[in-house]
Design brief:
There is one protein chain. The protein is of the alpha/beta class. The chain has eight helices and four strands. Strand 1, helix 3 and strand 2 form a beta-alpha-beta unit. The N terminus is likely disordered.
Length: 261
């Protein structure tokens, strides 16, 4: 087998595929992965692209192990209105993001791809993703749209002994800093990490805050507790969760609920 044919056979990123690769790879059993992130301050120690840099790496790792997965280019902007007091926040209005997600899902339908996995890296995107997904699902009931909404909450719930403070939570905090350390250590300057900030908020009632009401550093949580070992554990947890989900769905031919009776 030539080097060129090897390259074509194992491409999984749509941005790197040509028309021949697409014809050979994509069919009605393809699982399309969409990644949504943000561009915003994560404290002095973290890159502005953290919210897509990490989840796109998770997506690539899954695609490397599942032959019918393709990964679409990450959307590097999100709904970051609540961060706009911090320099160089690049935000999309919620209605705009709903439209973008809806258009992308519609494009997949037009290409007869009905199995979609969304990996989200930013809290402000959760509501627009749900609105768009429910709207498209209503118009196209045959489509299956799954979403990993908030990996930063999931990892602390699944393995509580990883983190030392606040279950790893925080914007540019213990979990997120560890995660980026695991995939792009060159972009993290842990020596510049701010001190611990745990916002005082009600336990059971949600307040729709602006981020500058919670911190003056651009970060919350305890980034100084982050390390690369924790990051590798986070990667493994998320990879296992997503691979398990795909294996389960593949086994049922992507049927669920009453369709399994």
């Amino acid at each position: 087998m030539t080097n060129n044919s090897m390259k074509g056979k194992y491409k999984r990123l749509i941005e790197e595929m040509n028309a021949i690769d697409v014809r050979k790879t994509i069919n009605e059993k393809t699982i399309a992965v969409l990644v949504f992130g943000a561009c915003e301050n994560h404290g002095n120690h973290m890159p502005f692209g953290s919210d897509f840099i990490f989840p796109i790496e998770v997506a690539k790792r899954v695609a490397a192990k599942v032959s019918n997965v393709i990964v679409l280019p990450a959307i590097p902007y999100g709904v970051s209105l609540h961060h706009d007091k911090f320099q160089m926040t690049m935000s999309i209005n919620p209605e705009t993001l709903v439209g973008i997600i809806s258009d992308l899902l519609t494009s997949l339908i037009q290409n007869k791809i009905r199995r979609v996995l969304i990996i989200n890296g930013h809290d402000g995107n959760i509501a627009p993703i749900e609105i768009a997904a429910r709207s498209i699902k209503n118009k196209h009931p045959e489509m299956i749209i799954a979403c990993l909404e908030s990996w930063w909450i999931l990892v602390g719930q699944m393995k509580k002994d990883i983190f030392e403070v606040w279950n790893g939570l925080g914007h540019g905090g213990e979990a997120e800093t560890s995660a980026v350390l695991a995939v792009r250590p060159d972009l993290v300057n842990i020596e510049s990490a701010p001190k611990e900030v745990i916002p005082k908020l009600p336990e059971n009632i949600r307040i729709f805050w602006k981020f500058d009401e919670l911190t003056s550093t651009g970060a919350t949580g305890s980034p100084q507790k982050a390390n690369i070992k924790k990051g590798y554990e986070i990667l493994q947890i998320l990879e296992d969760v997503l691979l398990s989900f795909i294996k389960e769905m593949e086994a049922s031919n992507w049927k669920y609920g009453l369709y399994l009776k």
